[in-house]
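Each record in this resource describes a single protein on a pair of labelled lines. With that in mind, the following record should read easily:

===
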Amino acid sequence: MEPQSQRPQGGSSPVNAQQAKAQFSALLDRVERGERLVITRRNRPIAELRPTQPPLPKGPRPLGQASDAGTPIPSAFFEPLPADLQAAFEGQAP
C-alpha cells in the first residue's frame, strides 16, 4: 500500500512539531485570523490546527436581533424577579 501524499491539502500551511511547540502562542494568533495549519513530524501531516466554526463573538450580543427586531423591551424586563418566583425557578419549594 502506498502512503498518502505528504503535502497538506486545502491551502493549509505546514508547521513542524518542534516549531509548533516553541511558537504555540504565535500560531494561535495566526489561526485566530483564519489560517489553517497542519502540524507535521518528519514532513508527515499529524494534526490540523484550525479556527473553531463559527468564530466566537467578540463582546456581548446586542438585543433586538430577532426577526421581530424593533419591538421595545420594557424596563421591567431587567428588574429582579419577586423572591417567590425566583425560588420556583431555582427548584425551591414556595
Remarks:
- The chain is about 25% helix and 15% strand.
